[in-house]
TrEMBL record:
SUPFAM superfamilies: Clavaminate synthase-like. The lineage of its organism: Bacteria, Pseudomonadati, Pseudomonadota, Alphaproteobacteria, Hyphomicrobiales. Pfam families: 2OG-FeII_Oxy, DIOX_N. This is 2-oxoglutarate-dependent ethylene/succinate-forming enzyme. It catalyses: 2-oxoglutarate + O2 + 2 H(+) = ethene + 3 CO2 + H2O; L-arginine + 2-oxoglutarate + O2 = guanidine + L-glutamate 5-semialdehyde + succinate + CO2.
């Protein structure tokens, strides 16, 4: 779509030094969405989505569930501590973003979370492979139902999103679909305590990092604190906007596009004075997917910047480096 850049809809505000663009899905055809997505992801790799068809009650339900979970005593949360399949409770200060491409991170993230992934039943041939296993659930009435309902809605929207993304890259509209027949998905219910007044400058709720897979769709509360790194190294706030989700390109999608779409570093400091909650949904290809630069994103003067990689290998390398529980020996 290179020659169409100058014709892109003026309804999408170009990501500037002041704000990220907002893309509405209300009554937009796929071709229009494709142009808008290409503009936003080429410019900064981040944008807001609005009007994506997710019921407000589902959003309120998953945030209420997250708050109910995180206000529990620590012992109740530890009862479903993160298992070897990367599901369950992750305690504060147990992850250090050692793979950050923009900072030397030495302090653990000051946040806690509940992690849900794609469900893999014991009779599934994948069961038992890395990251293919059971989810863990707290003993909270209604919690599972609220979380699963939101995850199901996000999965449905993400599958619909694949088509305008393919069109944006001059691919057949269903090109991405086979890679997501068994997607790798994460729904993370995050809680950030207030940033300590005496905290070091390099202390973060989430240290500067990029996401690993395909695309991230984040719903955040009204606290603020998310920042996106501009190309000049300065940081742009991504404040909450009612009825929107913050969306960003992750590493595998950037590799697929030969860097045309940016996997942009971002970070969180909760300076609101109160608790911050957010619910990022990570929608990634199957673990066995091979990602290599798209033919539409290379050619004369545009050679491939990266070799082909199996997504599962890339993902596991980063999880093994960044999460303390994965560095502990397996129980005998």
């Amino acid at each position: 779509m290179g020659k169409e850049q100058a014709l892109m809809d003026t309804s999408v505000e170009v990501a500037s030094r002041q704000s990220l663009p907002v893309i509405s899905f209300a009554e937009r055809d796929e071709a229009t969405l494709a142009r808008q997505l290409d503009q936003a992801f080429s410019d900064i790799g981040f944008c807001y989505f609005s009007d994506i068809g997710i019921d407000k009650a589902l959003v309120e339900g998953v945030f209420a569930a997250s708050r109910r979970f995180h206000v529990q005593p620590r012992a109740a949360k530890d009862a479903i501590a993160m298992n070897r399949f990367h599901r369950g409770y992750m305690a504060p200060k147990t992850s250090i973003i050692e793979t950050s491409s923009v900072a030397k991170v030495t302090k653990p993230n000051d946040s806690e979370s509940f992690m849900l992934m794609h469900e893999v039943a014991p009779d599934d041939p994948r069961y038992g492979r890395p990251l293919d296993g059971p989810n863990l659930w707290p003993d909270l009435p209604g919690f599972r139902e609220a979380v699963v309902a939101y995850e199901k809605a996000m999965h449905g929207f993400s599958m619909r999103l694949l088509r305008p993304l393919a069109l944006a890259l001059d691919l057949p509209r269903d090109w991405f679909v086979p890679y997501f027949e068994q997607p790798t998905t994460f729904l993370r219910l995050l809680h950030y305590p207030p940033h300590a007044k005496n905290a070091a400058e390099d202390a973060f709720g989430s240290a500067p990092h990029t996401d690993y897979g395909f695309i991230t769709i984040l719903c955040q509360d009204s606290s603020g604190g998310l920042e996106v790194r501009r190309s000049d190294g300065t940081w742009l706030p991504a404040p909450p906007i009612a009825g929107t989700w913050v969306v960003n390109v992750a590493d595998m999608l950037s590799r697929w596009t030969n860097g045309r779409w940016q996997s942009t570093p971002h970070r969180v400091k909760n300076l609101s004075g109160g608790d911050r909650y957010s619910c990022p949904y990570f929608f990634d290809m199957s673990m066995d997917s091979t990602v290599e630069v798209l033919p539409t994103c290379q050619g004369p003067g545009r050679s491939a910047k990266w070799p082909a990689v199996r997504y599962g290998d890339y993902l596991l390398e980063r999880l093994d480096k960044n999460y303390a529980y994965r560095k502990q020996p397996e129980p005998a």
